Amino acid sequence: MHKLDDNALTRMLSSYRDPTATKKDVTNALRIYHGLQHRMEEYVFNDGSTKMLLNLHGTIPVKYKGNTYNIPICIWLMDTHPKNAPICYVKPTSEMRIKVSAYVDFNGKIYLPYLHDWNPKNADLLDLIQIMSVTFGEVPPVYSKGPETSYQQPSYMPPTPATSTSYIPPYPTQQFAPYPVAGQGYNNYGQPAPGATGPGYGLPYGMPYPPAPGTIAGTTPAVNQGTGTITEEHIRASLISAVEDKLKRRVQEKMNQCQAEVQTLKRTQQELNEGQVKIKDILTRLERDEKELTKSITVLKDKEKELERALESLDNVESIDVDEAVTTTAPLYKQLLNAYAEEAAIEDATYFMGEALRSGVIDLEVFLKQVRQLSRKQFMLRALMQKCRQKAGFSV
Questions:
Q1: Nearest of 87, 77, 60 to residue 26 by alpha carbon
Q2: Worst-scoring range by mean pLDDT, 272-281, 312-321, 350-359?
Q3: Which of 112, 176, 194, 296 is the most exposed place for a label (fewest CB within 10 A)?
Q4: How far apart are CA 158 and CA 100, in angstroms?
């Protein structure tokens, strides 16, 4: 499995007009189809101009008559991707030959209605490859080259798009399943020669060529044996077969497109289901948070009412006298409280007198005189407090 390098892919797409959408499209395709790889190469257009473009090369699985085959392809992405459709080719190995059909020309270029009707809004590489796989399962684009035939490209064919290096399949160890073999009687252009018999063209090896309408498999059409001419019945059968083939191709194209759309819808449905689960989880968390917030708001409103009642009660209370704010239950306790308050005041006065002396506000003589008086009074107050505590039964 080829490991996808996001950084390398980002650098490759630096010259693209929409590198983000292109990278997402390429990444989705490579994650599903492990037989494909990406690289930058020089693409030569029909007018001779060249441009460095990203391509996906490798194999895609194709189911044909109950067997799975690996078809080699190459998908070139325009620098305007996904606005313009990619250019796709079948890249047969040396053991394979291109089978020309309504979907593949002599050069291996792929023609599909999906490419012709490319819509940048809903078209992507994943759907394109799926349509290729389904289409090639009905009409194989390659077949095995028989050892007795040699292929010469006519001079009138349009030039095959070239690259800076010859195309070498990046999968040398991968074995391709046998494809239709051109048997005896086939000419150099992959079409059955008149009167040819042998393995069927475009079918897995060993399958007989489809019989003409009105005949039994293994027999030849009923030609006038006497004259060797084709009768009116043969012309009628040929016309019916041509119309039938054309209708089958059109029906198959619609089926392929519908199958690709169904796959896209299934992926979309899966993504929507996953999104639905995530949304349900988010809604559950939101409901839980809503309940907690409702409870917190209720508690907050109750506290707010309590504060309003407390403020109203304070507004109705008359002014309080500081001296009467604290009352005692007995005269002894009141005497103790007053002595304690006065002693604390003397302590503060002594401190501030020291600060005044340090600042030069009073001289030393005044300081000593006042401190001596305050100290004497403080001594008397402490002795009184000790006596009151003894009378009240407190610890001294």
A1: 77
A2: 312-321
A3: 194
A4: 14
